[in-house]
Structure prediction request, 191 residues.
Amino acid sequence: MAKLIYMMNISLDGHISERDGSFAWSAPTPEFYTTINNLQRSVGTYLYGRRLYESMAVWDTAHLAADAPAFTPGLQDHEREFAALWRAAEKVVFSTTLASVSTARTRLERTVDPETIRQLKATSERDLSVGGPGLAAAFLAAGLVDELHAFVHPIITGGGAPWLPQDHRLPLELAGEQRLGSLVHLHYRAR
Prediction:
């Protein structure tokens, strides 16, 4: 059975963005990419809300080789690896407002059905990753999330979109911690 993993960049006070929606403070470092790439290797399907999908869609055109027709100058090896992992995975976008998807290996779903996700976990050979706090909240409420990875950045935003829902209780077990320069990666398993 595949695991459902929730990974997110967060501020010290638990936000994924500031009140205005910006998240420039979470710009990835090479150390971050190395860690996230290692985590993403097991992922075969990304489950996204609309906003995060729209942010991530740039990876569909981030070419991986210098001889590719539309090679992006300045892309580092760790970024090319991330793009390759992202492009190789299936993507499911849950949105009632998005008209269509623009990336390969992507399908659009209008409703979130926990039973469908249970079946996907049961039949998938590779792990699933949920992105976006709204979608993750629905999966947490349905008891579907197996692991959480918080990449804690050294900033207090004082508000913004919260990483976790305010009204959900879930006992966790610390599975690992790692310092990545000024970031701290916390890995928890649901009990």
Q: What stands out?
A: The first strand starts at residue 4 and ends at 11. The CA atoms of residues 12 and 154 lie 6 Å apart. Strands lie at 4-11, 43-49, 90-94, 106-109, 127-131, 147-153, 172-180, 183-190. Helices lie at 30-40, 50-56, 77-88, 114-123, 133-141.
